[in-house]
Amino acid sequence: MGEKIDFPDELKRHIRLAKKAIEEKEYLVSIRYLQKAYEMDMSFEINQLYTEALLKCEDFESALQIAQDFIIEYQQTTLTLTKYVRILLLNQHFLKARKLILQSVFLTNEQTKTFIQQVNQLEAAVDLLDPENIQQKRQWLNSWDEKGAPVITADWEAFQRQVTYRQFIAMMQDFLPKSKNDFLRPRLIEELVLLKCDKTITCSSWDGKATAVNLMEITLPEKVASYQELKKYFETEVAAQDSQMAEFCLNELNAQLAITYPFVPFVSDTKKWGESYILEYQAMMGSKRAKIILQNFADITEQKAQIRQIYQKNF
Questions:
Q1: Which domain of life is it from (predicted)?
Q2: What pTM does this model have?
Q3: DSSP class of residue 220?
């Protein structure tokens, strides 16, 4: 009998041939092998090889699309975070790259500073180019504001692309004081907080009051102390007694946070607000006692009614 030859399995063969093609600078060939390998095994290791080959071919958009399969994993080390930030910058997602760097818990202060300096250098060149792009983005903001509805993810992604930090801040300083869209305003404020903007910006609150907001003094929506307090209360104590009531309370709480941020009404008198959610649920379930007690919560129920009117117009 002849000698038995052990062939590597198909996956290993594709990876070996892809690496060989990369060494020989046959990047299109390597992409074909890596695409097949990735279909067989969607692992982070193959993902990195695949995205790198796509970058070599200057297919930046496809590289980003593939890298997003492992967006969490890319943020786990300085090396992989560097790779992902590079992909974002090659796709001119300057704001995304900046947010990722600033929010990373794996970078040292010095590494963060170095990364931001690199982003600033790239943005400095872009700031001088394509003023028509920024004019178009301003028109999008005005159009979204007039519609008064939430912005779909695809449109938001398109809006962020090719916008620098300096351009974004300038747009927000002009737009937020006159914005009336209660779905858009919280999203824009959150973006500014994620970007660690140190400006004070005037904007209208959900109840129509013009207010100056020091962005360095507010937290992200999910980190608002009163929200965390109520959320924990509903998820633990209330849920232990009545899971459906807890779900109702949480849904109401989250909806109201999304619309009112950063002017969250339950920051003051948080305990009474918590009681009001429970009483509303009990009243909805037919409790006459709850309806009577709610009469003592007139100010809170009035604010809730105003907030509900906002989101019920679109849902």
A1: Bacteria
A2: 0.88
A3: -
